Amino acid sequence: MKVTKFSGEIVNFDKDKLIHSLRKSGANEVAVFQVIHEIERELYEGIPTKKIYKLAFQLLKKFSNVHAARYNLRTAIQSLGPAGFFFEKFIAKVFECEGYQTQTNLILEGKCVSHEVDVLLKKENCVSMVECKFHGSQDAKTDVKVPMYILSRFNDLKDRDFQLFKNNYSIQNCWITTNNRFTDDAVKFANCSKLSLLSWDYPKGNSLKNKIDLNQIYPVTCLTTLTMAEKDKLLVQDIITALDLIQHADWLSKIELSPSRIKNVLLEANQLCNLIK
To answer: What is the domain partition of the chain in residue ranges?
Structure first.
């Protein structure tokens, strides 16, 4: 059976890959079997993978909102757009889980020109800059021109003293993050230029996807019990993650959710963060 990917490429339907993604959501074998069984009944030659994904999400939601939320992670991160401003804040939250201090959206004066820096990280007196490349489409890749351009910005900023994190520091390292993937040439150039990369699936074993699952730091856009309009209202109030929502639950009443819906949203958020089973 052939399927059509987001990019338009025609490939074979990969049942094992779908099973793996369902298991990664936390779904048990009964749920996985039933979802796969229902999807196989709906398959036809050339079916878009987007349609398969949407069907799997809907079927999984019947078993568990939390499993559906985890399965929906990549789309949820894409919902932090369209400009990527909230994606930058989310990336800062991810690094904070690993013990970094962070600052976002700064203007720094380089040797030649001024630069807007998406995120700054500090750990053990080492400061790094993070440039975030957000894509609104899942088939878009970050190509080699991006690390080439960011390297020139890093070179203009490094070795200069800035008032950062209440002290004087220079920027010593540079990260590039994206919600999608890097091309092979982008990875080669970045590695050769000593730039650190973080994408949906890179580096293997320590990718953005891995970090999110390991630290249980899910974006609020994952939650299936909220509408997109409600999620947007929360993002504007700096409620970026499910944990932020748990810590500032009063915002749910401020955006006019009923008591019963507030209860359901908080239950899903707590389960998603593994605070309750």
So the answer is: 2-71, 85-215, 218-272
pLDDT tens digits along 157-198? 998 999 999 999 999 999 999 999 999 999 999 999 999 999
Mean pLDDT score across all residues of the chain: 94
Q: Which long-range contacts (CB under 8 A, 24 or more apart) does 78-83 make?
A: 78/135, 78/136, 78/138, 78/179, 79/219, 79/221, 79/228, 79/231, 80/134, 80/179, 80/219, 80/221, 80/235, 81/134, 81/136, 82/136, 83/134
85-215: what CATH class?
alpha beta
Q: Is the dihedral of CA 213, 78, 144, 157 positive or negative?
A: negative
The domain 218-272: what is its CATH number?
1.10.150
Q: At 90, list the tokens.
A: 């989310």
Tokens representing residue 79 in the block: 């919902």
